[in-house]
Amino acid sequence: MSGFLGIVWLLAGALLLGAGSHAQAQSNVVILSTTTSTQDSGLLDVLVPMFEKKNGLSVKTISVGTGQALALAARGEADVTLAHAPGLEKKYVEDGKMSNRRLVMYNDFVLIGPADDPAQIKGLPKAVDALKRIAESQSRFVSRGDKSGTHVLEQGLWKQAGLEPRGAWYIESGQGMGQTLGIANDRRAYTLTDRGTYLAFQKRVDLPILVEKDRPLLNIYSVMEVNPANGRG
Asked: Cα-flanking dihedrals φ and ψ of residue 59, to 5°?
């Protein structure tokens, strides 16, 4: 619990610094575009009331995939964004759409799947090797398929594996993390999920963690301000 509270306070501080002064100059509402994982994990249920109480502002949250969250902010439809796609975030900063990017927290990704583990990936140290076995056995795998940070990471892992997944075994949900977990559970399939959302949904999903703690599965979150020139007027 102490680690969780530390993350909350780090993030709250970043939002206070990043959004407070700009929002006060504009209105009493801070629009936060963020990922479905931060919403589904329950983190925002703790963070938002703390922010509102301390800062006297209201927070309107738009929870979508990371790609959409960043695009919304870049169009000036948010004051601040919280995302987990470092390469894409850096591009928006370089293009002048965002500023003041700061790392605020991390969790990690895990590969989960049916307990009988038809692809026999349990305990493998490398996520890439696990994906190779899933593809070779054509075991069902549910991808978010929504250009989110999770989807971007998954695509990168398939690329490292030298594979382009396709076929009936590879299912694209086009949904957020919580809904994707539900689909994977119903289909008895493998999927890639952030650990925070998995823990929040653990009572509803009976797919165990099979692969974890591989370095590429580190999931780093950053907070960024919208460039005032692109922000809400």
From this structure: -115, 125
Task: Tell which residue, 50, 59, 22, 40, has the closest CA to residue 107.
Answer: 40
β-sheet bridge partners, residue 209: 112
- Helices and strands (DSSP H and E) totals, the chain: 9, 9
Residue carrying structure tokens 């928006």: 92
> Residue 3 is encoded by which pair of tokens?
């680690």
| C-alpha–C-alpha distance, residues 142 and 191, integer Å | 5
Rounded to 5 degrees, what are φ and ψ at 203?
A: -75, -15
User: Distance of CA 52 to CAs 55, 60, 130, 148, Å?
Assistant: 5, 11, 43, 27
Residue type, 199: L
Q: C-alpha distances in angstroms, 174 versus 78, 97, 163, 177?
A: 23, 26, 20, 10
Q: Residues near 180 by Cβ (< 8 Å), separated by ≥ 6?
A: 142, 143, 144, 173, 191, 193
pLDDT in tens, the chain (233 residues): 334 444 444 454 555 445 544 444 456 888 999 988 888 888 888 888 888 888 788 889 998 888 888 988 888 898 888 888 888 899 999 999 998 898 888 889 999 999 999 999 999 999 999 999 999 999 999 999 988 889 989 999 999 999 999 999 999 999 989 999 999 999 999 999 999 899 999 999 999 999 999 999 998 888 888 887 765 54
Sequence-ordered list of residues with C-beta below 8 angstroms from that of 95, at least 6 positions apart, any chain: 74
